[in-house]
Design a protein that fits this description.
Elements: H1 7-23, H2 30-43, H3 49-69, H4 74-90, H5 94-107, H6 112-124, H7 128-141, H8 146-158, H9 162-176, H10 184-194, H11 198-218, H12 230-245, H13 249-262, H14 267-276
Helix pairs in contact: 1-4, 1-8, 2-3, 3-4, 4-5, 5-6, 6-7, 7-8, 8-9, 9-10, 10-11, 11-12, 12-13, 12-14, 13-14
Length: 278
């Protein structure tokens, strides 16, 4: 079970890891400097998976060499374990990643990034209790990072603990205001819908649509012919399904039509619209 992170959570995680990679090799240790260079090269080859993986294998080799040869400061060892663990996690080698994150935490029990990533590993292997414990400790260490609340909220959703998920998503929204990040309202809307609070779910989906439209406007894409906006279509489909559930066919039909305006390719919208006409 790997919890799907929303877009801004992935961005926040990438920024955290850039700090980690920058910290490696600051004291002039050659293997760490080489590993850092390979990692930076891997990040530059996002569109070339084979090349990216080659650089990551080289980075792994250098991190391992640095850790095995010794002579590193505690700070450098912590950073090397964390960076190597992150690569293992990205390769879905969770047992190796867990080992490295635990080593980093031994060196610094307040390492929120290592603790958060440890939670990611536990979630991926299906240990929900351990994942929740790790996420909660990471939140306690760094409550200013909205993505930590989001990831814990996603886990609460998986566990059917909807009220706690709503609390975490609400906290993430509060910490990103006045410019809440894409996905936050949608996630809380999903939690409200799962909890049966359908009016609040619709309100959050509409708020998310407004955010998406503002994003499109800022990119100069709003109202341009031929532009597909699947994210908005998906939100209208969710609204349409709620209205269908309530036997409100006219409102459901309107929502599905709005979805098709956003994306003519939306199969869910076409199927929903067909259902309302039966």
């Amino acid at each position: 079970m790997f919890l799907k992170a929303p877009r801004y959570t992935k961005i926040a995680l990438a920024l955290m890891m850039l700090v980690v990679f920058e910290s490696c090799g600051r004291q002039g240790v050659d293997p760490l400097a080489k590993a850092k260079q390979f990692e930076q090269q891997a990040m530059q080859h996002i569109t070339d998976p084979a090349k990216k993986e080659e650089f990551r294998r080289n980075a792994l080799k250098e991190y391992s060499k640095a850790l095995e040869t010794g002579g590193l400061s505690a700070t450098d060892r912590e950073a090397a374990y964390l960076a190597r663990g992150y690569i293992y996690l990205s390769q879905e080698k969770c047992e190796l990643a867990i080992r490295d994150f635990l080593e980093a935490i031994k060196l610094n029990s307040r390492n929120a990034t290592a603790t958060y990533l440890l939670g990611e590993c536990y979630a991926q292997v299906g240990d929900a209790a351990a994942a929740l414990n790790a996420y909660s400790r990471a939140v306690d260490m760094n409550p200013e990072l909205p993505s930590l609340f989001v990831q814990r909220g996603l886990l609460y959703m998986k566990l059917g603990r909807h009220s706690e998920a709503i609390e975490d998503f609400s906290e993430a929204i509060r910490r990103t205001e006045p410019n809440p990040t894409t996905d936050s309202y949608e996630l809380r809307g999903d939690a409200y819908a799962s909890a049966g609070q359908l009016d609040k779910a619709i309100a959050d989906y509409m708020q998310e649509i407004e955010i998406e439209r503002k994003n499109q406007t800022s990119l100069g894409l709003q109202n341009q012919p031929g532009i597909e906006i699947p994210a908005i279509a998906e939100l209208y489909v969710k609204i349409g399904k709620i209205y269908e559930q309530r036997k409100m066919s006219n409102l459901a039909e309107s929502a599905y039509k709005e979805a098709l305006k956003a994306s003519s390719l939306s199969r869910d919208a076409r199927e929903g619209l067909a259902r309302t006409k039966k």
